[in-house]
Design brief:
The chain has helices at residues 3-35, 42-52, 57-71, 185-195, 199-223, and strands at 84-89, 92-101, 105-112, 116-119, 125-133, 136-140, 146-149, 154-157, 163-167, 171-179. It is α+β, with helices and mostly antiparallel strands. A six-stranded antiparallel beta sheet has the order 1-2-3-10-5-8. A four-stranded antiparallel beta sheet has the order 4-9-6-7, with no helix packed on it. Strand 2 (92-101) and strand 3 form a beta hairpin. It is globular. The N and C termini lie far apart (61 Å).
Length: 226
């Protein structure tokens, strides 16, 4: 075998080893996500949001935050850390207020004061949204018709799915995500970083997520008596 052949063989072996390592990591991550205990459930968040659907969205959000703090003490960010932050992704623009965040879950308030729409993104996470006010339209991949959702309705976006999404002005919702949450940042921050080049919003987003992680770390160590 010549030098070129040996070099090609080494490269193929390296690629095979790298691929095998990636498969092992993904399998381990999948097993961890399946077996771990979660703080919230999609049904709980949807039911809570549905109970306040139809109210003025700011009133509904304040009630939802209070109830979540009662049910999950130590897992919801304090008032001084709550901040509405712009989200630019998939061609649409909205605003979010993060309430809870960890490596595997998040709860946030989301919406838009203007008409907007675009691509939903594909995630390694299951995401559900319950509409508080306004209307949300979704066009699923592989179909030729869209569906409209109204206050009280819950939309489920399964991991790996892609849809076209559209919000009418004044649409506000409560969102719960479960999966490997850092993997969603590629889509969620792409437009902010490369299109809008809004580095202030990028900073706000990463800062509030870091605060959520620190809160969860504190809650975890508290259960250990540390």
């Amino acid at each position: 075998m010549g030098a070129v052949g040996r070099r090609a063989l080494r490269q193929a072996l390296r690629a095979g080893l790298a691929l095998g390592a990636l498969v092992l990591v993904l399998q381990g991550l999948r097993g961890w996500l399946t077996s771990k205990r979660y703080e919230f459930t999609p049904a709980e968040i949807a039911q809570l949001a549905r109970h306040h659907a139809g109210l003025d969205h700011e009133l509904a959000f304040s009630k939802i935050i209070m109830e979540l703090r009662k049910k999950h003490p130590g897992h919801i960010l304090p008032d001084e850390d709550l901040q509405w932050v712009f989200v630019n992704a998939g061609g649409w623009m909205g605003s979010m207020c993060l309430l809870h965040a960890s490596l595997t879950e998040y709860v946030l308030l989301f919406g838009t004061a203007i008409d907007t729409g675009g691509h939903s993104g594909r995630y390694w996470a299951d995401i559900s949204d319950t509409v508080i006010s306004g209307t949300f339209r979704q066009w699923k991949e592989g179909t030729t018709r869209s569906e409209i959702y109204y206050p009280g309705d819950t939309i489920v976006h399964q991991a790996g799915e892609a849809t076209s999404v559209q919000w009418s002005a004044g649409t506000w919702m409560v969102e719960y995500g479960r999966g490997f949450i850092p993997s969603t940042f590629t889509f969620a921050l792409a437009d902010t970083l490369f299109s809008a080049q809004d580095f202030v919003t990028l900073f706000y987003t990463l800062r509030v997520y870091a605060k959520g992680l620190l809160l969860e770390a504190n809650a975890f160590f508290s259960t250990l008596g540390c």
